Automatic annotation (TrEMBL):
GO terms under cellular component: plasma membrane
Protein's UniProt keywords contain Transferase: no
Membrane-spanning intervals of the chain: 53-73, 79-95
The keyword Membrane appears for this protein: yes
Superkingdom field: Eukaryota
Signal peptide: none
GO BP terms, alphabetized: positive regulation of plasminogen activation
Keywords associated with the record: Membrane, Receptor, Transmembrane, Transmembrane helix
Protein name: Plasminogen receptor (KT)
InterPro entries, sorted: Plg-R(KT)
């Protein structure tokens, strides 16, 4: 009789463990999907912001180029056109970020760093441990009571 009870309890325990494992896997999968969705939305917002900024900066750049060109012709001094050089670099960067391949190149470089230069990613003094966090918390806490 005890053996049948024991066997039934073992089966129930095993079924419960499998359920808990599947439940934790499902929770982890949902968490990963949510984090990926949030990252994609943040990236889309960054690209949209860059495109919107480009509209305003492009207008400014165009007006500045026309004004500086007119000023250079009027004063017969090509030095007046010098501010166009840095402005054109900023415009080209923003255009590449919003409509070009800058993000793909950045992603490729990031993958290269992850694959070949992972030592650069290590935090100073190594990864943070629970003991270090507790030490910092205790030193900063005003309400900590030592047992």
């Amino acid at each position: 009789m005890g053996f049948v009870f024991s066997k039934s309890m073992n089966e129930n325990l095993r079924a419960q463990q499998e359920f808990m494992l599947m439940s934790s896997r499902l929770q982890l999968e949902r968490q990963l999907l949510m984090q990926n969705q949030m990252r994609e939305r943040q990236t889309a917002m960054q690209i949209a912001w860059t495109r919107e900024f480009l509209k305003y900066f492009g207008t400014f750049f165009g007006l500045a180029a026309i004004g500086l060109t007119a000023g250079a012709i009027k004063k017969k001094n090509p030095g007046v056109l010098l501010p166009i050089v840095p402005l054109s670099f900023i415009f080209a960067y923003q255009y590449d970020m919003g409509y070009g391949t800058l993000l793909q190149r950045i992603k490729g470089e990031a993958e290269n760093i992850l694959d070949t230069q992972s030592a650069l990613l290590e935090p100073p003094k190594g990864p943070l441990t629970f003991e270090e966090l507790e030490k910092i918390r205790r030193s900063q806490s005003k309400f900590f009571i030592e047992k």
